[in-house]
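Here is one chain, start to finish.
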Amino acid sequence: MPKFAANLSLMFTEVPFLQRFEAAARAGFTAVEFLFPYDHAPQEIAGELAAHRLKNVLFNLPPGDWNGGERGTAALPGREAEFRQGVARALDYAAVLGTTRLHAMAGILPSGASAERRAACRATYIDNLRHAAAACEKQGVTLLIEPINQRDMPGYFLSLQHEAHAICAEVGAPNLKVQMDLYHAQIMEGDLATKLRQYLPRIGHLQIAGVPERHEPDRGEVHYPYLFRLLDELGYDGWIGCEYRPARGTVEGLGWLPRTDSDGAR
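Its structure:
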């Protein structure tokens, strides 16, 4: 059975962020992920992880002006220095938290961006990812890129699985992999089982949510039990991030989550 990590940016929001670690542990999780840790000192978060025997498996590099609508800077020409500062900052946090996966968000392109603009963004993306992958490699960290659907994030630079894998191949860094969120992939492409069979060796992290509302994965059009069995058959031993918004309370919605041992650990 796959291993599940609670996403503390979307789950357990009934309590403040630093209290969500205890809530996740009480619910049976042994690992967590979150979007951004930067509002708190790394030592604070590390203390919560240690106190509740949790592993942090993923967070994102700084995204630029998130509240202003930015969604990453990796593919934005002219923002290279800011991106590289963000890589260093994320790695400082990762060293304290014991995190081994970091996600670099590409960024939003203006509506109607020209082919020339997209080409410039792609070249910037490749150069930035090469820099970030090299820095991450020194610390034993896997760098991730994620295709995100155009309905939820219009204009996001990277939306399709084959595009992400082509970029990884061009960058040529063994520690650069794809973060495949099955929610985004279903909205953009579907055919999830075939894509898992095709791409799994180059996938560094998986995430799930129900489609189309992004609630619990037992709601909506995707039959996740089938995909979980398939991942077992394919030998996937990584984490699956539960990046969904609970329809009601977080704990009340955990009936879908398989128990993985006699003690009830997730």
